[in-house]
Amino acid sequence: MHESKRWSTSPPDELFTEEFLHANGVEYEIEVDRFAVRWKEKYWKNTPGPFYSTISNMMSLLASSDAPSHLFYDERCEFVWRPPCTENEYVDCITAMWCDEADSYGIDGNEHWTPPLVAEWWERRGELIDWAQGLQTSVSENERTSWDPSVDISLRSMLTQYIDFIENESEEYLRSYVFLLLEGRPARDGDRLPIIGG
Known about the structure:
This protein is mainly α. The protein has one domain (about 5-185). The chain has helices at about 20-25, 60-65, 85-100, 115-125, 125-135, 155-185; strands at about 50-55, 70-75, 80, 105. It has a two-stranded antiparallel ribbon with strand order 1-4. It has a two-stranded antiparallel ribbon with strand order 2-3. A hairpin with a 4-residue loop joins strand 2 and strand 3 (about 80). The longest helix has 29 residues, at about 155-185. The protein is globular, with a radius of gyration of 16 Å. The two termini are about 25 Å apart. The mean pLDDT is about 85.
């Protein structure tokens, strides 16, 4: 389990500035306008958060290869399974999405998610676990998540991490995220987190 309130961090305001990107090791320009997709095309498996993929993402698997701790895929497309919260994680995600299909990812989730929508996603978590467990039993121990040989993570291992997140981490994350949506700031120690759907 991650430390308290780990998941409450919102994106840095300077996320797309040259200074921020260069300070985090990105040597090329990333254009924020390329991420201007339509919210109504969001793929439902995306965990609520600032980043999300759309159904127009045709599963090239490049992004999930570059940021497997945050991006995964099913038979339809890639999706954000663990939202980023630190500066390095935000950089990992935006660079992975940029190198893949930037125009099939959105970064304005905080402007669209509401507590009721988060609760709707939470109510479907059983579907996500059933899907992941079903896939886990059908793949070999050595099957990889990507065609890229440098990504040495088995598909089973990725699915185990995903299931663990849904079962053991997602509730605290979602409660912190709803707090962020309601209060306009990340939760701090001592803040009372709302109940999902309550």
